[in-house]
């Protein structure tokens, strides 16, 4: 595959497995774009994805491995692996759960507001009857 077809593609997925490809992964991720390592051009692609196994990371710096593992950990803790479709989009049940939670919050808020309105009416009735009593006293 040449560089032009790599950059013209809508999405690019590179799968790197095994210790014998660890140097290529290292050159791809940790160094700039280089004509000697065509795979490094994936750094410039807007929708580039690299999938690798543990053995392929042997030549990477420890910081690089930790960085990508931390991204994966945060991603899984926020979204969860069971809520993603094959295209990386959220599955429908996750969206439905969020909508149900929003509805519950809205109902709770409405009930709180209704309780506040009832309390205000009771207070208003209490104070207005108190004012009426004072007016009657002043007339006597």
TrEMBL record:
One of its GO terms (molecular function) is isomerase activity. InterPro entries: Glucosamine6P_isomerase (IPR004547), NagB/RpiA_transferase-like (IPR037171). Keywords: Isomerase. It comes from the Eukaryota. It catalyses: alpha-D-glucosamine 6-phosphate + H2O = beta-D-fructose 6-phosphate + NH4(+). Residues 115-140 are annotated as: Disordered. This is Glucosamine-6-phosphate isomerase 2. SUPFAM superfamilies: NagB/RpiA/CoA transferase-like (SSF100950). It comes from Helicostylum pulchrum.
């Amino acid at each position: 595959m040449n560089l032009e077809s790599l950059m013209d593609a809508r999405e690019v997925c590179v799968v790197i497995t095994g210790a014998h490809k660890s140097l290529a992964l290292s050159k791809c991720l940790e160094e700039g774009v280089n004509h000697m390592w065509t795979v490094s051009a994936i750094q410039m692609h807007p929708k580039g994805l690299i999938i690798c196994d543990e053995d392929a990371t042997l030549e990477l710096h420890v910081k690089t491995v930790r960085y990508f593992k931390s991204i994966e950990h945060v991603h899984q803790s926020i979204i969860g692996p069971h809520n993603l479709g094959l295209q990386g989009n959220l599955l429908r049940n996750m969206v439905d759960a969020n909508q149900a939670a929003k509805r519950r919050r809205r109902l709770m808020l409405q009930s709180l507001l209704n309780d506040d309105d009832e309390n205000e009416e009771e207070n208003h009735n209490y104070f207005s009857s108190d004012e009426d009593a004072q007016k009657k006293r002043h007339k006597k």
